[in-house]
């Protein structure tokens, strides 16, 4: 399957998260993104070094700049269960607006065509690192990394593309 690209419609799928009342929610991606401009970025795994120290903090720290450029919401997706994603989100005390979404079985990652097989490293099927800008379910920016690189999907890269 070809990776998602500019001009594609964002596929629908179900992702999970814990809401402010600590209730597990399963939510349709389309219900989150329809009628909005959103950033959807993905990482290979929670608590991994590049993801935790570079990729995620950039989007949290620059959230106001994204809002100023018309972005309504920022979503992070990772192939982890919702309990891991909740624990990971809690490590970012300053985060109020990046929603951590779990793709436990990598089904949504597969629908995006962005799976990365890290079985040789003991991690199984994960997500390639990526960042998308989606305007009313249409992809307008698609920055997808090769392998484990971190060169085109940072918050700064996406802000430049907006």
TrEMBL record:
Gene3D superfamilies: Glutaredoxin. The active site is at 51 (cysteine sulfenic acid (-soh) intermediate). It catalyses: [glutaredoxin]-dithiol + a hydroperoxide = [glutaredoxin]-disulfide + an alcohol + H2O. GO terms for cellular component: cytoplasm. Its EC number is 1.11.1.25. Keywords: Antioxidant, Oxidoreductase, Peroxidase, Redox-active center. It comes from the Eukaryota. Residues 4-162 form the Thioredoxin domain. GO terms for biological process: cell redox homeostasis; cellular response to oxidative stress; hydrogen peroxide catabolic process. CDD domains: PRX5_like. The keyword Oxidoreductase applies. Pfam families: Redoxin. GO terms for molecular function: thioredoxin peroxidase activity. Belongs to the peroxiredoxin family. Prx5 subfamily. Thiol-specific peroxidase that catalyzes the reduction of hydrogen peroxide and organic hydroperoxides to water and alcohols, respectively. Plays a role in cell protection against oxidative stress by detoxifying peroxides. This is Glutaredoxin-dependent peroxiredoxin. It comes from Cannabis sativa (Hemp). The lineage of its organism: Eukaryota, Viridiplantae, Streptophyta, Embryophyta, Tracheophyta.
């Amino acid at each position: 399957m070809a990776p998602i690209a500019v001009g594609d419609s964002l596929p629908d799928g179900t992702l999970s998260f814990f809401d402010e009342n600590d209730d597990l929610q399963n939510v349709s991606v389309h219900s989150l993104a329809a009628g909005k401009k959103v950033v959807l970025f993905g990482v290979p795994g929670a608590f991994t070094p590049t993801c935790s120290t570079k990729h995620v903090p950039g989007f949290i720290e620059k959230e106001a700049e994204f809002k100023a450029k018309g972005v309504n919401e920022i979503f992070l997706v990772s192939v982890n269960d919702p309990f891991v994603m909740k624990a990971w989100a809690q490590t970012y005390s300053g985060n109020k607006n990046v929603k951590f979404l779990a793709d436990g079985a990598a089904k949504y990652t597969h629908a995006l065509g962005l799976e990365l097989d890290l079985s040789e490293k003991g991690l199984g099927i994960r997500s390639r690192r990526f960042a998308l800008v989606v305007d009313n379910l249409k992809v307008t920016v698609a920055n997808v990394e090769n392998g484990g690189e971190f060169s085109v999907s940072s918050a700064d890269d996406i802000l430049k593309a907006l």
